[in-house]
Amino acid sequence: MKKELRIVSPNGHLGFAPTKEESFYLAKATKPDYYCCDSGSDDIGPTALGSDRSVSMYRWQKHDLELMLLAAREQGVPMLIGSAGDTGANSRVDMYVQMIKDIAKEHRLPPFKIGYFYSEVDKDYLYRKLDENVPIEGLDNRPNLTKSDLEKTDRIVAVAGIHPFMKALDLGADVIIGGRSSDCAIFAAPAIREGFPEANAYYLGKVLECASFCAEPYGAKESVIGTITHEDVKVTAMHPEQRCTVASVAGHAMYERANPYYEYFAGGMLDMKDCTYEQYDEKTCRITGAKYYPAEQIKVKLEGSGKVGEKFIGIAGVRDPYTLQHIDDVIHFARAQTEKEFQGKEYHLHFHMFGKNGVMREMEPVKNITPHELGIVVEGIAKDKTLAEELTLFATRQIFYARLPEVKGTAGTAAYLIDDVIYAGPSYEWTMNHTVPVKDPLELFDVHIEEVN
């Protein structure tokens, strides 16, 4: 049994913006045991999943995969990627597997084994669960899943825990490309498989998932290394000017949580309320005291996306002082005129105002001060593309035509606008943020392995 394990995390979201090479090569020089990276998130919104595409540039994704693959193969240590291609959909897994093969061929790498797993869930599987009266519980105050929710859904992914990564490692994989995955599981899986405590392993994943976001001063896309032992977790910044401090690591561990001391996984709960943080050396923070409680029943998170319609965007600006003082009336007029013109039609219309809520003065917001100028973005969505364009054009122009009681005669002083609208592509919504109980943690994940020559 190993006394410690060292994992490098080079990027908090592989390919979203390119990994910084200087700190990566510094990390590589320390010869870590694993190269692990998360490549996706639901933070990007539902459109990428629904339309089955990436939001990251292919060139950036290849850059990051190439850095990791060449380093891992040179050392002969495993490389793990989760949530391939931003969403973890099947097509994104296939894309990453092909990229790995192409990079290996380009650099004439010796043969190695690649493992990969899919995360997409067939709607019929969930229809059967509902017919069997299995509760598919909503997260974040969503009601339980209904057949109506399923009907509105175009694509579903299950969020993998540690199990498909561990299975691929057991099958001898040197490189693993995962479908949609829990961020922490990508790092926790090798540590748990190597015999380290689950509490420390999941905390290791929690602190490494966003790479250098756990360091100070703030700097993204820089490498950090996590070291796990049977007693503690240590995290070290690789960039010469960054440090992992008590404040930066504790702050990152507890960000974005309704209850900052707990993190829930498919297999249980990480309890961080008794964690102790200490400055181990200038660039390293040491953490002890994490606890882990296995779940009585394994539940897998599901993310689903469905198309709402086609989207156009209009842009208007307002500088006239009187109009600025009555901007709420202007928007009310534009909305009312649009409702009258498109009565009986199904659409969604949003007015986003930038600059309305005061100005910044010495870094403090000053409220109730009329701004010099407002930018207004009009978002129109309808199932029919022509209707969506007409809707957005009409609503944007009504800002220009608003009838205010003290305006007498002269037109054109209230607003200026781009006298056209921009097609923004199809618009999607999250239709599913739920958990489904499973008997086998691998039930929804199809693991494959093959030789790359």
Automatic annotation (TrEMBL):
Pfam families in the record: AtuA
Domain Acyclic terpene utilisation N-terminal stretches: 61-412
Protein name: 3-methylaspartate ammonia-lyase
Naturally occurring in which organism (per UniProt): Compostibacillus humi
